Every structure is written in C-alpha cells, then in structure tokens.
What we know:
Elements: E1 2-8, H1 29-40, E2 41-42, E3 45-46, E4 50-56, E5 65-70, H2 81-95, E6 102-105, E7 108-112, H3 115-123, E8 129-137, E9 148-153, H4 160-169, E10 172-175, H5 183-199
Parallel strand pairs: 1-4, 1-9, 8-9, 8-10
Antiparallel strand pairs: 2-3, 4-5, 5-7, 6-7
The structure holds S-adenosylmethionine.
Amino acid sequence: MRRFLILAHRVPVSGSFTLNDLAGGAGRMDEIARAVSTAFTLSNDLRRDVELSILVGGDPATAARRIDLVGVRLRHLNPDERSTAALLKNALVRSSAVDRPIESSPGLAVGPVDPPAALREFLARPGVVWLTEAGSPLTLHPATPGDFAAVLSDPYEPTDAERAILVASGAVPVSVGPRSLRTSQVLDVVQNELDRREASPR
Ligand SMILES: C[S@@+](CC[C@H](N)C(=O)[O-])C[C@H]1O[C@@H](n2cnc3c(N)ncnc32)[C@H](O)[C@@H]1O
C-alpha cells in the first residue's frame, strides 16, 4: 500500500466555501483536489493501492476533520479538480453536522480528529517519510513501492507544532528534487519513482 497524509492548513473545516473560489476562500482546496487526483488517477484508471488522508485543521473555531480516501473502494473520483473539490466539500459539510466518522461517498470517510494525535498515529508506522525540500534524495531512499507512507504539506509550511511532531517521530526527511514543488507535483514524482521501482525491482 502507498499511504499519504496531507496537512491542510486553511481549508474551511465546515466546508463552507464556494467551488468558484478554490484557490482563495477555499484555502487552496484547488491544490488539495489536484493532489488527490494525482495520488489516485491514472490514464483511464484509478490506483487501487493508494490510501490518502487529509488533515483539515484550517479553522480553530471548528473541530478539525480527517478525510480518508481508500483507493480500493473509491468511486465518483473524476480527473478534474472541481468535481474532486466538490466531493471533499460534500464530505466536510456532511461531517459538520455529526460528531462521529461517516462515509460521505464510497471510499471516502470523514470524521472529527485531534490533529496532533492523528499526525502521531500516521507517523507511528515504521519508516514514514517526511516529504520536504530539505530532505535527502528520494532516489537514494530505500522505499519499497508496495509499502510506503509519507507526510507532506499543502501550499503552506507545516506549523511549528507539526514540525515538532514530525521531528520527534523520527520520520525521515526526503526530497524529490532541488526545487520547491507544488503538493500535487511532489505526489507525481513520488508515484513515478515508486512505479519505476515496482516495474524494475532493485
Ligand atoms: C508548495 S510546498 C510548501 C511551501 C513551500 N515550502 C514554500 O516555499 O512556500 C508544498 C509541500 O510540498 C512538499 N515539497 C515541495 N517541494 C518538495 C521537494 N522538492 N521535495 C519534497 N517535498 C517537497 C513539502 O511537503 C511542502 O510543504
């Protein structure tokens, strides 16, 4: 399984944003939606060996949410950013009315979380990678395509508190290249590297 956790900092937790302003009032939901698309979509197919969680903690007044997408069960994920953002918005809106996890559409669950605890839980897996510009090269990292887990951030830097948890967990800082890339681009590069290793085991 390939597992990813995206730290989303400014997406309104209640889902109260318009699909016409994804890069503004939606707190860069445009990039989160692109990242979801990149993580799961192939040409005319879906990656079933991917699980992706989004930690949505963008509104201190509202309890944070974690959205979990599971490739093997995922339905209704189209390649375009707007419909993906609509799926995620729907999850947040429906979740804001209940205080327990729900499945808002097949393969897409959402529920309230304590963000530090959720981040620590993800990092408790062995060998989790922290995707960061300051890391050592992914090409030199002994990641295996069938058992990979990584944390990365949305267009905003991890907070000091998140950074402290990442450091304390011992997550390995890994870089995909010398330039600061968009979240979705990083996922593209990682998926490609894992695909290559899967096709030609070392
Ligand atoms: C747009 S970047 C974050 C903001 C950026 N650091 C800046 O200069 O404003 C989004 C996220 O993608 C990941 N990222 C970006 N470039 C990367 C790289 N070269 N290698 C690994 N991860 C990278 C990091 O997790 C980063 O937090």
